[in-house]
Amino acid sequence: MTESITIYSDYVCPFCYLGRQSLETYRETRDDEAADLEIDWQPFDLRSRQRRPDGTLDESVDSGKDEEYYEEARENVDRLREEYGADEMSTDLVGDVDGFQAQVASLYVKETYPEQWLEFDEAVFAALWEDECDVGDADVLADIADDVGLDADEIRDVVADEAWRDRLRDEFADAREFGITGVPTFVYDGHGARGAVPPNQLERLVEGV
Fold this sequence. Notes:
Elements: E1 2-9, H1 14-29, E2 36-43, H2 67-83, H3 100-112, H4 114-129, H5 138-147, H6 152-158, H7 162-178, E3 185-188, E4 191-194, H8 199-207
Parallel strand pairs: 1-2
Antiparallel strand pairs: 1-3, 3-4
Helix pairs in contact: 1-8, 3-4, 3-7, 5-6
């Protein structure tokens, strides 16, 4: 028997990276007799307000977050990085990387090569938050694809394909309609938890204990 937990996330969100570390810790501590817990990833767009029609980011757009917010975010990232044992994570917050193309590629891999999606997904997170690569770059995504056994040129073509880009925009709209306002958001059996919550909270969400 296989169960799934839905996760709304954007690769450029440090708390999404940390939330995945927490989820992995929880999954590793589940009883051997418990059902496998698969990840049902759903995309979310953190950069929508900043993205120009040509796809570039406008850094002058007011995000509604001041320096005090970012300082608090840095402190929380540092705290959770230590708490979750995410020693390989870069401590620099990403401000100028757009996750749109990475999410196009991830959506394509999820639907076309589902058995390889998790490896690709984890590699994108690692490339950005551990190796500090720009996962908004099609060539970087192509290299990641190649590293996990996917066709690099296929991924390079997909991220430029307007049909797949429109598919992703539809997914963003579905997330908003569902009521998702921030990430990461974990959803299981009609219940949710928002933020990089600790493993024991994920346990309560899934197992009700």
